[in-house]
Design brief:
By secondary structure, the protein is an alpha+beta fold. The protein is built from four helices and four strands, in the order H-E-E-H-H-E-E-H. A four-stranded antiparallel sheet has the order 1-2-4-3. It is globular, with a radius of gyration of 20 Å. It starts with a helix and ends in a 12-residue tail after the last helix.
């Protein structure tokens, strides 16, 4: 969430944000790419430090500077690694890998005499105060129920 939120925050209107995932041996690799302003090399070294915020000239930077530090720590606690590739003027790619878990076996089913009732497609509740970010999780983004 943090990586996508940052991409939204730092990518200008009309920009591009891409999410990608792939299996690499025993790891799942996730990438969040954008074509925003990019991060200067001198700031790349500090960007994962707690309370450090990227300085954009002439813009007020929102946030506490904790998001990337917390995200990095969470990835590490799950046995992964969070990294960054960036080029000023071309964008950034934050990527991390996590150990792939074993696939779950399908549960054994018992036949019963009761009639199974269909409750419709499964639903997921997304709680997010930023409508744009909330829409990222909707299959039909414009019709997202925001009640």
């Amino acid at each position: 969430m943090n990586l996508v939120g940052n991409a939204i925050k730092f990518t200008p209107p009309g920009g591009r944000i891409e999410l990608a995932a792939h299996l690499d041996g025993g790891s799942i690799c996730m990438e969040v790419r954008d074509n925003g302003p990019g991060i200067p090399p001198e700031e790349e070294r500090r960007i994962f430090e707690a309370f450090y915020r990227l300085r954009e000239s002439g813009k007020k930077t929102e946030g506490t500077g904790l998001g990337l530090a917390i995200t990095q720590r969470l990835v590490e606690l799950h046995g992964g690694e969070l990294s960054l590739k960036s080029q000023v003027g071309e964008g950034s790619c934050f990527y991390f890998s996590l150990p792939a878990g074993a696939s779950a076996q399908e549960p054994l089913t018992r036949k019963t005499d009761s009639v199974s009732r269909s409750l419709g497609p499964p639903r997921i509740l997304v709680i997010e105060d930023d409508r744009v970010t909330g829409n990222l999780f909707s299959r039909n983004s414009p019709q997202l129920d925001t009640k």
